[in-house]
Amino acid sequence: MATSIALNRKISQALFDLAAIAFIYFIPAISHMLSFPLYLLEPMRIVLILALVHTHKINALVLAATLPFFTFLVSGHPILPKAILISGELVINVLLFFAIASRVKSNFVAILSSIVLSKMLYYFAKFLLIQVAVLEMGLVSTSLWIQITTTLVFSIYVALFFRKNKQ
Prior knowledge:
By secondary structure, the chain is mainly α. It has helices at residues 2-34, 43-54, 57-75, 80-101, 107-131, 144-166. The protein is built from six helices and no strands.
């Protein structure tokens, strides 16, 4: 029985990962079909949040670390230094979430704080890379209003999911 449950969990996780990779892979095509730039909605963070909620910590970390490199390898975007930045931000987001969640009772506060703190570190690192001419781009490429909105939506989703599962 335990072996069957473990196998089902591994199959579910593998299917989740395949769906996540396919989603990220097809973002450009979906964006073109919808005539809307889906990258503005932070698709990698969407996958990360879904992995945090629906799989487990190790899987979320693996996806956080590898998705930016996957998109770099298949599309050349983002450029390698930015892929490294994004990967670092997402990994820090996961680690901060679990660290904060273990200390506070509110998953909303934990995910909101982890996203905001990881974004602050991302922008600090990006600023440094711009200053030393590793990156040649503006500091903020996605509107702060969009980032605030997506952060709140992601935080509400995590809070609602974990509240529902506690009942």
